[in-house]
Design goal:
The structure holds two protein chains of two kinds. By secondary structure, chain A is mainly alpha-helical. Helices cover about 65% and strands about 5% of the residues of chain A. Chain A has a two-stranded antiparallel ribbon. Chain B has a domain at about 25-185 and about 195-200. Chain B contains twelve helices and no strands. Chain B starts with about 25 loop residues before the first helix and ends in a 16-residue tail after the last helix. The chains are: A mainly alpha, B mainly alpha. At the A-B interface, α1, α2, β2, α3 and α4 of A face α1, α2, α3, α4 and α5 of B.
Chain lengths: ~120, ~290
């Protein structure tokens, strides 16, 4: 069984723990510069949206540069987004996204992603 | 530390207590009910994480190491994408640092409430501090007007850590027995979860601009710049994640329409995972 990624987990812990611990262990850290707070608030949405966009919109063929991809995955992800905004329920959004992809691929409407 | 900016929370000064809006017993019962809802959500997401990790090639040990050692849902989901895309570890570390930097806001907000808890226990509390633990704990503390350490442990361990890890294990083993994950649409879970989590963090135009800018920059970089410079397309996520927030900051405060600035009653609920409403009534979390 592979253990190659366990050191990566330790690295991720090492960069996560300080932000979790500083405020609890360093008294008086409840006041931060406004600019730092504002930037930190925006990082989450930006990183997560960037991850989703690259995962859905960019495909890298075996031999060649990355290409812009359009497919049923767009519909599924947008449906999930709509449900989260409407019902504030991510689990339901994920179920709907998976259902859209399964039906589209199962009926031959959409191709399977390259492995 | 700056004294000219508002504190992140309205914790009572040492030796005093804030105005309570519920008895400890009443608030504890409510905390447990909320924790049950969060636990159901954690089980669902933990299972999905396990499935996705397995599909991306993580071994059961590696997936479980992520869930116990890192214990940060969004960063763990993101790591699946980073590893699958072959992103270098320093870049993964940078993105994880940025993505989890929001915990600094939570710990800073909880810090004054926990000042009386022995330091070693606070050090353990820190590892278990998640979006959900923060939302549950600060809501409970503010309802009773004082710190309740047991309440923190209920929110952090019983509702999140244990369900998340058990569900990860189940997902990893279930994922290993699926012959063709693409036919079951498992590959769509990762981007859908990412966009859903991003939407849950948006509470104003600045976040919206940061998200759109981050996505657009990431895709543009992945398609064009990474080829030109011979870099992996996944480096676009780093560039989008760092530059997107800077563009979001360009939105003037008057136009930001911030619905839940930190330090206000809406801020705690804002950080709850959007799979479960922590509060539904007007008297909700502080």
């Amino acid at each position: 069984m592979s253990t190659e990624l366990i050191p990566l987990a330790v690295v991720m812990f090492a960069v996560t723990y300080p932000s979790r611990a500083l405020g609890l262990l360093a008294p008086g850290l409840d006041r931060l510069p406004r600019g730092a707070i504002a930037y930190l608030q925006l990082v989450g949405p930006a990183v997560l949206a960037a991850l989703a966009a690259v995962a859905v919109m960019v495909r890298t063929p075996d031999n060649g540069p990355p290409v812009f991809a359009i497919g049923i995955e767009w519909v599924a992800v947008l449906a999930c987004l709509g449900i989260v905004l409407w019902r504030r329920n991510l689990l339901l959004g994920l179920v709907v996204a998976v259902a859209i992809v399964v039906i589209a691929r199962g009926t031959g409407f959409a191709a399977l992603p390259p492995s | 530390m700056r004294e000219d900016v508002p504190a992140l929370t309205e914790a009572p000064a040492e030796g005093s207590s804030a105005a309570a809006t519920a008895s400890p017993e009443e608030s504890r019962r409510r905390l447990i009910l909320e924790a049950l809802g969060i636990a159901v959500s954690a089980i669902g997401f933990g299972f999905v994480y396990g499935l996705s990790a397995r599909q991306a090639g993580f071994s059961p040990l590696e997936a479980m190491a992520m869930s116990t050692i890192v214990f940060a849902g969004a960063a763990q989901f993101a790591a699946i994408g980073y590893v699958a895309a072959g992103l270098a570890w320093p870049a993964i570390a940078l993105l994880t640092l940025l993505l989890n930097a929001r915990h600094l806001l939570y710990s800073a907000a909880l810090g004054p409430w926990m000042a009386g808890v022995p330091r070693p226990r606070r050090a353990v509390m820190a590892h278990l501090l998640t979006d959900e633990a923060f939302a549950l704990a600060i809501g409970h503390f503010r309802r009773i007007g004082r710190t309740d350490e047991s309440g923190y442990w209920i929110g952090a361990i019983a509702s999140t850590f244990i369900p998340w890890n058990l569900a990860t294990l189940a997902g990893v083993y279930a994922g290993g027995s699926i012959a063709d994950p693409a036919l079951l649409g498992i590959d769509i879970i990762f981007p859908a979860a990412m966009i859903g989590l991003a939407a849950g963090l948006i509470s104003g135009r600045r976040e919206l601009v940061a998200a759109f800018a981050g996505a657009a920059i990431a895709v543009s970089w992945a398609l064009f710049a990474s080829s030109a410079f011979g870099l992996e397309p996944s480096t676009g996520v780093v560039v989008g994640g760092v530059v997107g927030p800077l563009l979001g900051l360009l939105v003037p405060a008057a136009l930001a329409s911030e619905r839940a600035p930190l330090g206000t009653p809406a801020s705690a609920e804002r950080f709850a995972m959007p799979g479960t409403r922590v509060d539904d009534d007007a008297e909700g979390l502080p």
